[in-house]
Amino acid sequence: MASVVIAMLVASMDTTIINTTMPIIAKELGGFELYAWSFASYMVVSTVVAPVAGRISDLYGRKTIFAVGIIIFLLGSLLCGFANTMLQLILYRAVQGIGAGVMMPFPSIISGDLYPPEKRGKIQAFFTAMWALSAILAPMLGALFVQYTTWRWIFYINIPLCLISLILLRAYKEVYIPKKSKVDSLGAVLFAAGVSMLLLTTVVENYIWAYAAAGVIILFGFYLYERQHPSPIVPLSLLANRPISGMNMNSFLACAALFGVSSYVPLFLQEEGHSLFVSGLALLGVSFGWMVVAVPSGKWTVKWGYGKLIIIGNVLLICSGIMLLLLKQGTGFWYVFSAMVVQGLAFGLIFTVATIGSQQLVDANQKGVSTSMQLFSRNIGTAVGVTVMGAFLTKGLDVYSGFHALFMYGFIASLVALASSLVLRKV
Prior knowledge:
The protein has about 425 residues and is mainly alpha-helical. About 80% of the residues lie in helices and about 0% in strands. The chain is built from 19 helices and no strands. The protein has helices at about 1-30, 35-60, 60-80, 85-105, 105-115, 115-150, 155, 160-170, 185-200, 210-230, 235-240, 240-260, 265-270, 275-280, 285-305, 305-325, 335-360, 365-395, 400-420. Helix 5 runs antiparallel to helix 6 (about 115-150) and helix 12 (about 240-260) packs antiparallel against helix 17 (about 335-360). The longest helix is centred in the first third of the chain and has 32 residues, at about 115-150. The chain is globular, with a radius of gyration of 21 Å. The two termini are about 30 Å apart.
């Protein structure tokens, strides 16, 4: 678990540490027109790789695949530190994304192997604490490295941490017995290509519909191919499993509704005159609320089932949406912090219960891919939500009308998420 937690801390920090330093990096390397792609290459690749990695771990075991992910991430970090042009950085960030995509599902997968459902809530809360810690450490470390050494250390710092994680992983005794079979290589390529095309619609400015059409066509071909394969990379039986597909759909809609708010709330507070540090502290409300419900939620699932808890989580999500919708010029920090706490309660309940459900409601040899598909649904929903919110914000008459439109979208979308969760009421 120590190995898993360190790897998760490294991957989560690398998601945010570059946000504060990227303007300086772009200024030194040039190619400012490629600025967004330094984020997009990491996000697209890591999102696509995660479910594939989960499935391969079902076939070949957790320890080996997790170790491969750490090594790839380490290599990508080293390459990013050596980058001399923006194009090189983008390519090396994609390598990092492969490693991160392999690593990120394993905290939930391995905890699902090691702990019974009633204890997994505490473990999920511990993982959430790592995200909260990374949210604090990443901007501070980024600023320190830029001021006293060089931005390249935001990547080099990953190397000793990855090595420690690998050393600690050696002590892990594999408890899951893999069900070995031939890897569906073509299915993995089709899945990666189709999802990549769809994700690129969130970052490109031209030919958006062409990318979307290509993604849909490739994924349709992927579906037809997977129907015939004896060991598909994404077992279609998961789609036929109504509780699993319902949880995945609800996670997608919940993230598309309000998970992306964390990208914009700090900007709102900065418009109100708060510092970068204070505006970032508001996001700790999400982590606080998340941990409050994550700890007991494992026991709650045993007592009350999955569906009721997910519905309650979606009701809390609507409450946070209403609070955000009431934001206006002059709103204080503590009101925003409170809204973030309620949102943390919502997502902590939805995600923890859905993660446990995705592991308990499938066979052991599908636990990895089922957990990864849950993470995949959230990532896709977040990418969609952040893009739509950004469009509302930039098209407003002024910044406050833009924020109002953004939060109105989040509130309406959270109602749709609640409606989708009702199909789980008997689960």
